[in-house]
What does this fold into?
Amino acid sequence: QVQLQESGPGLVKPSQTLSLTCTVSGGSITTNYHYWSWIRQPPGKGLEWIGYIAYSGTTDYSPSLKSRTSITRDTSKNQFTLQLTSVTPEDTAVYYCARDLTGWGRISPLSSWGQGTQVTVSS
It folds into this structure.
């Protein structure tokens, strides 16, 4: 079975870059029609789709975050990463990586999730 695991620092200072890595096991991130996604949930709020990197390497981002977001991958390590620049306290959230089998973007039903990792933006 496919498993995903997030890793990265739990505390980031305002104006700096949030960087997280998702390690995928049990499946290749280059498998056809797989879209590797990042989602976040601020405290007390709903889930927000951030974006994905597709099996082909193509990316798609939420319009509200596109200017600050970069999702990349390392196929040799079967990992994909999230970088979110110029963070503010409003970026504080639990961040999840997940597998999407549709490529529909923000409305995609995500089939597999990591456990999530708390990231706090604070000075």
Remarks:
- The chain has a mean pLDDT of 97.
